[in-house]
């Protein structure tokens, strides 16, 4: 009886909360305010963790735990992603069979531009991520695309991130309803619960950053992509942004999407946009 | 005839014995099953979020699981929380173990038995 009353009260209050949440949203639904969204997103983390320096959020779990941060800083003397960085640099300077290089595909020869990805491509009407742009560059030059979840791709993005370290994330949403729709779609994906375990991205990375699941400390969503790609000890290897999304999906027992599926591109757009103003820190190393 | 008249008394005695011994043995094994399920990473995996006596490397997302019998004297309430806590708290992190068929009703019941010993 008591349980039933509690359930009834619970669902009543849930209904009230749902009503309170939806009613102003209906009014705002015709106009997505990405600027206000980004500000609210950042302020949420700044207020929840007043002692964390804003630029430190890009260091993921290390920004949440002093002991872990010390261990990581010692490890950074000989970072585990160094081999990927060296390989990426080498790959970047090695010409394709047609004599061209990656540098020919990117603004500023691909150096120091990580902070501008992903961008909204108005010709395609879709979000283009760095990983996607790299494979398109390869294909345009007659080379087979790389796997989105393996070491070659991670090496390339590691090098491109490294040459952009410290530059502030600078994602643009052009005045195009399709760009705003992509942002909104990414936001929806981020907050939607899925999988047998019923988690959204936000359950762990907005509601619970700094908390531990077993021995692992959950990273804050703010700036989480600024550190990509990452070397993960758990993976014993490098991971691209694609790999990160797919792993998150399977860990919550959801069916992962194909790498670079529209939803993944959009969620990368959303997460990168709300991290505007925070420095690129990749490649990163995580437990 | 004498042997025959003895039998009912014996049966009653046996039944009485069984009546006391069998449920407690069953309860014992349900508690043990519940503990195994609670700690199993593929099943309850409760340690990912909760501190539980006897478990290593607990997470910190949920409250420590102790004194549950006094907090929830009605076992149905504990069962409901494990079955689908989003009903009471839509914002909860707790997976709906029953609704999403991560655990069967019987498995949840065994876990409730175990939780009530904490």
From TrEMBL, chain A:
Substrate binds at residue 244. Its cofactor is heme. It catalyses: L-cysteinyl-[SoxY protein] + thiosulfate + 2 Fe(III)-[cytochrome c] = S-sulfosulfanyl-L-cysteinyl-[SoxY protein] + 2 Fe(II)-[cytochrome c] + 2 H(+); S-sulfanyl-L-cysteinyl-[SoxY protein] + thiosulfate + 2 Fe(III)-[cytochrome c] = S-(2-sulfodisulfanyl)-L-cysteinyl-[SoxY protein] + 2 Fe(II)-[cytochrome c] + 2 H(+). Its EC number is 2.8.5.2. Keywords: Electron transport, Heme, Iron, Metal-binding, Periplasm, Signal, Transferase, Transport. One of its GO terms (biological process) is sulfur oxidation. Residues 1-28 form the signal peptide. GO terms for cellular component: cytochrome complex; periplasmic space. Residues 181-287 form the Cytochrome c domain. GO terms for molecular function: electron transfer activity; heme binding; metal ion binding; oxidoreductase activity, acting on a sulfur group of donors, cytochrome as acceptor; transferase activity. It comes from the Bacteria. Binds 2 heme groups per subunit. Heterodimer of SoxA and SoxX. This is SoxAX cytochrome complex subunit A. It comes from Bradyrhizobium betae. The lineage of its organism: Bacteria, Pseudomonadati, Pseudomonadota, Alphaproteobacteria, Hyphomicrobiales.
TrEMBL record, chain B:
The keyword Iron applies. This is Sulfur oxidation c-type cytochrome SoxX. Residues 1-27 form the signal peptide. It comes from Bradyrhizobium betae. Residues 29-118 form the Cytochrome c domain. Keywords: Heme, Iron, Metal-binding, Signal. GO terms for molecular function: electron transfer activity; heme binding; metal ion binding. NCBIfam families: thiosulf_SoxX. PROSITE patterns: CYTC. InterPro entries: Cyt_c-like_dom, Cyt_c-like_dom_sf, Thiosulf_SoxX.
